[in-house]
Design goal:
The protein has 158 residues and is an alpha+beta fold. The protein has helices at 2-19, 29-46, 109-114; strands spanning 52-53, 59-62, 79-87, 93-103, 123-128, 148-157.
Length: 158
């Protein structure tokens, strides 16, 4: 009878260990987002940059505001043509593109949020928290959880 209890006890123990959650694999997206925003604010302060922010938490600057209402504003359904330079908070460039055309719905969320604040012909800079960039996965040239900065010139909106 004692052997049955010992076997039952070990079975419960092993099942409990097998089902327990490994806290080292936990990722707190909210904490990462707050950390990213703090890093962006520190960068802006270090370089004495005044930027606006969207309700989503993306920081941006529009360099060449066009007064005319004849210029198109993109939506996430638009196809856009841009020139851009992407870099990290240490100012290391990781990507560039000239005269690149794409549907806005096909790019990172940071561009889907940022580019619609621009008008055709304007230039701007986006400070993108990692959740709106490549997130926890990163890509071949962007490490996971990287804050991104993009200088973007919006050439054309279709």
């Amino acid at each position: 009878m004692l052997n049955k209890y010992i076997i039952l006890l070990f079975s419960i123990l092993f099942i409990g260990i097998g089902c327990s959650k490994d806290s080292s694999n936990d990722f707190n997206e909210t904490a990462q987002f707050e950390k990213d925003k703090q890093l962006i604010r520190e960068y802006l302060n270090r370089y004495h940059i005044k930027a606006d922010s969207t309700a989503d938490g993306l920081y941006y600057i529009i360099d060449d505001t066009i007064a005319s209402s004849n210029f198109k504003k993109p939506t996430t359904d638009s196809k856009v043509t841009v020139n851009y330079v992407g870099y990290f908070l240490d100012n290391k460039v990781f990507d560039t593109g000239n005269n690149i055309q794409f549907p806005l719905s096909s790019v990172i969320k940071g561009w889907q949020i940022g580019i619609p604040v621009m008008k055709e012909g304007e230039s701007g800079r986006f400070f993108i928290p990692s959740r709106f960039g490549y997130g926890t996965q990163g890509n071949s040239s962007v490490p996971a959880n990287s804050v991104l900065i993009f200088d973007v010139e919006l050439l054309k909106v279709e």
